[in-house]
């Protein structure tokens, strides 16, 4: 029987999730389709970061709690590449010294573009884009465009931007291990090693 928390049948990972009490502040705006996808990595960020919160996107009814959080925060930043976005390093130099509230769209790339296009309140936010330090290791979905990162990888890049390199590496190592376990569990067996390399 599969674990009710991590979802794996042959190799429960619940005890191995990294936990960061003091880290970046992230608001995950999740497309409704993403909530039940086994391939979702936003749940890793939610588990690892005590400062992460999840909100569900709706075209007709923006999440009021997120709008309030944005209104009350001195430095909200939408992490989304567009013709209006700036490199994240420039956003840091130009804006408040207060640690940012990073709004991250948790969706496929096609869904994320739709979310942004149909949400004027998202378009009104200061926008930044990442300049990844490496290529994506995410292999759970087909038709991934080169340069795109999964949600958890976005989190690790944001950590590096904030100078939290040890946390970023720990989360990156866990994601790499998680992907191995996912593939093995989907094929009906446990992996040989039960430790994160």
Supply database-style keywords.
6-stranded parallel beta sheet; alpha/beta; Alpha/beta knot; 197 residues
Radius of gyration over all CA atoms, rounded? 17 Å
- Tell me the number of structural domains: 1
Q: What is the oligomeric state here?
A: single chain
| Portion in helices | 25-40%
Number of helices: 7
Largest sheet: 6 strands, parallel
Strand content: 5-15%
Text of the CATH class: Alpha Beta
Average pLDDT confidence is 86
Spatial order of strands in the largest sheet: 2-1-5-3-6-4
Name the overall outline.
globular
What name is given to the CATH topology? Alpha/beta knot
Low-confidence stretches: none
Q: What class, by secondary structure content?
A: alpha/beta
What pattern of helices and strands is seen along the backbone? Answer: EHEHEEHEHHEHH
Tally of extended strands?
6
Description:
The chain has 197 residues and is of the alpha/beta class. It has one domain (20-135, 144-186): 3-Layer(aba) Sandwich (Alpha/beta knot). Helices cover 35% and strands 13% of the residues. The chain is built from seven helices and six strands. The chain has helices at residues 42-48, 64-72, 88-94, 109-117, 120-123, 151-161, 165-186, and strands spanning 25-30, 52-56, 76-79, 86-87, 101-106, 127-129. It has a six-stranded parallel β-sheet, with helices on both faces. Strand 1, helix 1 (42-48) and strand 2 (52-56) form a beta-alpha-beta unit. The protein is globular. The two termini are 26 Å apart. The model has no long low-confidence stretch (mean pLDDT 86).
